[in-house]
Amino acid sequence: MKLFVMADMEGISGIFQRSQTGRAEANFETGRRFLTWDVNACVAGCFEGGASEVIVRDAHGAGYGFVWEELDPRARYVQGVSERERIPGIAGCDGLILLGYHAMAGTREAVLEHTMSSAGWQNFWMNGRKCGEIAIDAGIAGDHGVPTVMVSGDDKTCREAKRFLPGVVTVEVKRGLAREGALLLSREEAHRRIQAGAAKAVGRCRALKPFRVKKPVTFRLEKVSKGRLPLHRPGVRVVDGRTYEVKAATVEEALNLL
Ligand SMILES: [Zn+2]
């Protein structure tokens, strides 16, 4: 069983503030350690659950989060950027895990909620359904026939995951109290839950259905700022002064057209 883990940062246990997630921020070094520990707990769970191979992508920002020298030696790791695929090699995997994810832009009392870019994206819809990064990445995997088997993050992230992905294992590592505030578990308890969740999730790879998005897929993006639409890009349909749509044959292709 081959697992791919996309690791974001906002939904990592112990993270409750922006200062922990930005490369130039005061507490980024702390945030990186928390991220690395959650990754290690997840990798341990995957192998405990019967995985034969695990690849983890540092999917936050420019992929500079993992403390490489502290990572579990059994898995392999993607850091930095990739020119082709957002989830490199997902086609040959049996399941996708979204670790440390966050609720879609606009969700109330959700830790560091956003969709792709806090500064750029106000709202986002896929085939008319408002969604966030959970649905986007599950959709990319779904296009390759790969089910999303686990999502970890705060309570709002888990709620969103269940709405889009019936049967997915959710691991709630904190309760969101505000955009920058949370009721946290201890480090030990959070890691215990992540490890147990990942072990359980490996067992669901065969049973869960991939999240398949109808094609052609339409992406609608409402930008934060007005008057900044890609008006001269082919295939762009302008909806209003800060909203536009693109259509494509796959989720990944649509994402690249935005
Ligand atoms: Zn992130």
Structural notes for this entry:
The protein has 258 residues and is of the alpha/beta class. The protein has a single domain (2-116, 133-211), classed as Dipeptide transport protein (Rossmann fold). It is built from 5 helices and 12 strands. The protein has helices spanning 28-48, 133-143, 155-164, 187-202, 251-257; strands spanning 2-7, 53-58, 76-78, 95-99, 121-126, 129-130, 148-154, 169-178, 181-184, 217-223, 237-240, 243-248. The protein has a 7-stranded mixed sheet, sandwiched between helices. Strands 6-5-10-12-11 form a 5-stranded antiparallel sheet. α1 (28-48) runs parallel beside α4 (187-202). The two termini are 34 Å apart. The structure holds zinc ion (ZN).
Compose a concise summary of this entry.
With 258 residues, the chain is α/β, with parallel strands linked by helices.
